[in-house]
Amino acid sequence: MFISSVIVSSLLAAALVYAAARKLTHTPAVVAAYARAGVPESWLTPLAYLLIAAAAALLAGLAWAPLAVVTSSALAAYFAVAIGFHVRHGDVRHAGMPVLLALMSIGVGVLSLTR
């Protein structure tokens, strides 16, 4: 189970860093994509830093499983809110990535509980 945990945690951490890097660019396409979901541009940088911290915590959680469980739970809540933003603003078509990342977050938590 530890190998599975390493793989899923690493993939999720990489996805979080990628999402954070996109947010930090503040390019018009990125700003427009988040605006469609109701996220103001002023939130992008703080959300990016939050995702970077979560990625670091996931990797540290490989050494200490309780940290991985807490981080994955927080990420599942973060992505549940993201899904809610997409649904509330009629942007359901773009909710697939937050759903996938929420499921991966739950997977990390489950795998961390079983090691």
UniProtKB/TrEMBL annotation:
The lineage's top-level taxon is Bacteria
Keyword annotations from UniProtKB, A to Z: Membrane, Signal, Transmembrane, Transmembrane helix
Q: How does it sit in the membrane?
A: Multi-pass membrane protein
TM stretches of this protein: 43-60, 67-89, 95-114
Indicate where this protein resides in the cell. Membrane
Per the UniProt entry, the signal peptide is 1-19
Q: What is this protein called?
A: DoxX family protein
